[in-house]
Amino acid sequence: GAIIPTAIIVIIVGIFVSSATLVPTGHTGIITVFGKVENETLDSGLHFVGFWKNVVDMDNRTQIATLELSCFSSDIQEVNMTYSVNYQISKDNAQDIYKTIGMDYLHTVMEPKIQECVKSIAAKYTAETLISMRNELSSQIEVLLRDAVAPYHIEIIATSIANIDFTDAFTNAVEAKQVAEQNKLKAQTEQAQKTIEQQAEAE
């Protein structure tokens, strides 16, 4: 006689436990039923939903993407760049992001858009100005990237160019050019000094 009531209690407890879900801090809970996304979302905290429902956690916190990119300058010099982006998805649009993009928005949206924007802006500068105008380059890429990912409800927090490298041949050519300019300047200075000395002797 005690078996049936005990079984009922166990079933009730099981349903209660299976209905409890915890959404971590900094996340939004997306509710799905047999793969279909429901209209409601859950904030962080403990919630009770139907045991037939599934809750997917979407991360709203700031995330970092760092890419090693290869692009070309306007004078067709190969440039290797390390580019970092701090970004986050819109909490209010987490449901739409899950519906249209899914969980892998880093590889689906961010990486292709970062590559596209970096290559587009880098191609406007010569290899030498990429170094001398690094801050301007970074700002232009960030502006372009913000506009590129905005339709996907992704916000750019900050960006930075961690490193810029060129081929050994180009680096050697730049060094040789700098040495030549320094030697030219030195020769001009020596010639000017000699002219002053000659004028002084003549006087």
Care to count the β-strands? 8
Distance from first to last alpha carbon: 130 Å
Q: Return the average pLDDT rounded to an integer.
A: 83
Largest sheet: 3 strands, antiparallel
Contiguous runs where pLDDT drops below 50 for at least 5 residues: none
Estimated structural class: alpha+beta
Describe the model.
- Strands 3-2-5 form a three-stranded antiparallel beta sheet, with helices on one face.
- Strand 2 and strand 3 form a beta hairpin.
- The mean pLDDT is about 85.
- The protein is built from six helices and eight strands; from the N terminus they run H-E-E-E-E-E-E-E-H-H-H-H-E-H.
- The longest helix has about 35 residues, at about 170-200.
- The protein is an alpha+beta fold and about 200 residues long.
What's the arrangement of secondary structure elements?
Layout: H1 3-19, E1 20-23, E2 27-33, E3 36-42, E4 45-48, E5 54-59, E6 63-72, E7 78-89, H2 94-100, H3 105-122, H4 127-132, H5 134-149, E8 154-166, H6 168-202
Antiparallel strand pairs: 1-4, 2-3, 2-5, 6-7, 7-8
